[in-house]
Amino acid sequence: MEKRLYSALQRAKQKDEEGLKEVIQQFEKKIEAELRQTSLQNRDDLRQELVIKVMEAVEKYKMEDVPNFEQFIEAQKGKK
């Protein structure tokens, strides 16, 4: 899942509509879980708000902040 999400996120960051749809689909289970916590009458509005939040997060996400494997290993060593 992570590789697919990362690939979709890269495409979404390049304004690819299909990539953005794929990112949103990756979060669909979480969105559905949140919707079950609210009344039926508010679910459509909440769904729309949650999708907007995902879209905003895609815009703000900095791909260059994702560590490569070597950086990840070094960071893990520092946690011990």
Please tell me about this protein's structure:
The protein has five helices and no strands. The protein has 80 residues and is mostly helical. It has one domain (2-79).
Portion in beta strands? under 5%
Summed up, the helix count is 5
Average pLDDT figure: 88
Distance between the termini: 28 Å
Query: Per the principal axes of the C-alpha atoms, what is the gross shape?
Result: extended
Please state the CA-atom Rg, rounded to the nearest Å.
16 Å
Q: Biggest sheet: strands, sense, closure?
A: none
How many structural domains does the protein architecture include? 1
Q: How does the helix and strand content classify structurally?
A: mainly alpha
Tell me how many strands there are.
0
